[in-house]
Design goal:
By secondary structure, the chain is α/β, with parallel strands linked by helices. The protein has two helices and eleven strands, in the order βαβββββββββαβ. It has a domain of about 170 residues: Glutamate synthase, alpha subunit, C-terminal domain (Pectate Lyase C-like, 3 Solenoid). The radius of gyration is 18 Å and the shape is globular.
Length: about 250
């Protein structure tokens, strides 16, 4: 059996640029598994990497973790800051805490799983191309503009472990959405949903596609996937590919 080459890097006191140089040097030297310890806001971890490197991160990575990433897998054993999976092409990211704003911005492939909640403008401009279908699943709640301008992919909000009275999602859900699928495990009011978006029944094909990802999510965070029932989800899809066509004169 082949043994993967592993290395541990300590981020203590390092500027993000120096730390990322050490990460790239380790990969160039043959490291296939990297354990990053004492991470404290260092930005751009995994940025632009086109490898199959596996990361285990202890601490809180800074903005744009996984930006333009194409292949690696990242597991964060804490929270993450803004811009996770920005324009990511492939790979997987699992955050065992919370995530900040603009999670999965313009994401075009791969998967992002978040155990806790996320901030504002999650999943905006997500897009799909041929067989590349991005998936982002957030375990807790999300703030305003969830799925804004979404053009493709699958975006899911589960509402797990929310304090009593905390809404699962904010206002302007799917505002400007013109592609993809959005699932919210709970009830939302019509006034929360952007124009040009409608509630759609979850048929067998859609549920099978979604549940496959939910099973993997549950496995990552040691949950029971049987808690996820089709009837508990609100399914939103765009009713038009040009939701704002009436605002333009051409």
């Amino acid at each position: 059996m082949t043994t993967l080459v592993s290395e541990t890097l300590d981020a203590s006191g390092l500027h993000f640029s120096e730390f990322n140089e050490r990460i790239r040097a380790a990969i160039a030297a043959g490291a296939e598994e990297l354990t990053l310890k004492n991470v404290n806001g260092q930005r751009y971890i995994g940025a632009g990497l086109q490898t199959k490197t596996h990361f285990e991160i202890y601490g809180t990575p800074g903005n744009d973790m996984g930006v333009f990433m194409d292949g690696p897998t990242i597991r964060v054993h804490a929270n993450a800051q803004d811009g996770v999976a920005n324009t990511m092409s492939s790979g997987e990211i699992a955050i065992h805490g919370r995530a900040g704003d603009v999670l999965a911005y313009a994401m075009r492939g791969g998967r992002v799983f978040v155990r806790g909640s996320a901030g504002y403008r999650v999943g905006i401009h997500m897009k799909a191309y041929e067989e590349r279908i991005p998936v982002a699943i957030i375990g807790g709640s999300a703030k305003d503009y969830f799925g804004e301008y979404m053009a493709g992919g699958i975006l899911v909000l589960l509402g797990l472990d929310l304090p009593e009275g905390e809404p699962i999602v904010g206002d302007f859900v799917a505002s400007g959405m013109h592609g993809g699928e959005l699932y919210i495990r709970g009830k939302i009011e019509d006034w929360q949903i952007g124009k040009g978006v409608g509630r759609v029944e979850i048929d067998d094909e859609a549920w099978g596609r979604l549940f496959k990802h939910l099973e993997d999510y549950a496995r990552e965070f040691q949950l029971d996937s049987r808690m996820f029932r089709r009837e508990d989800f609100t399914h939103l899809k765009p009713t038009s590919h040009r939701p704002y066509s009436g605002l333009y004169v051409y």
